[in-house]
Specification:
By secondary structure, this protein is α/β, with parallel strands linked by helices. Helix content is about 50%, strand content about 10%. The protein is built from twelve helices and six strands. It has a six-stranded parallel sheet with strand order 3-2-1-4-5-6, sandwiched between helices. The longest helix has 20 residues. The protein is globular, with a radius of gyration of 18 Å.
Amino acid sequence: MAHRMAELGLPDAIAAALFDLDGVLTGTAALHERAWKQVFDEFLAARCGAGFEPFSLRDYEAHVDGLPRLDGVREFLRSRNITVPEGNSDGAGDRWTVRGIGDRKDRLLKSMIDHDGVRAYPGSAEYLSAVHAAGLRIGVVSSSANAAAVLGAAGLSGFIEVRVDGNTLAERNLPGKPAPDGFLAAAAALHVSPSHAAVFEDAVAGVEAGRAGAFGFVVGIEHAGDQRQITALRNAGADIVVSSFSDLSRS
């Protein structure tokens, strides 16, 4: 068992692995960023005119990545000192409200997934298989309401015992990342204490959630090898930051 845990790059005390989805197991984080950029740039052009400052990758990482959809809208607009109404629950006629912007992004993301498909990162299935073979419980904790569809399209659903996603957070009225509640709910469903669970995250908000929940080990994943983001994940409290799952077996 200790040998298998060493191959996973995890401490021996870990009994469960809790993975974020977009940007950790699948490459869909890039689709999220593209969808957010298109919607926010449309909004900013309508609100501010031709001289608006476009939505950037840094905006995505600092204000949107890892957060539930409507929280992401609020946080980005707050960063630009912009206030809009919350909007109606059905989003009807509310294009430039918090809910209207969020709903527009969700529709755009779904069309991108349908058009571009979903790609699991190289090594995701192999690492999940190794985690399962080592006897660890497996959960996915994602702010996305589309997590089930993404897992299915990527061929990863069979590995996942528990899924806590954006729908779960809304149904249970749980706060999203950087609050630890989603990860805590997944650990409870797997009957594993947080101190015996590892969190795998690509977003600063997710790493902060892992730390806030007192999880036993927090792994930062930065598949693109962006040194700025690697530093941000370390500063947020990741125990280790890697560029691929294969790096864990060499850590």
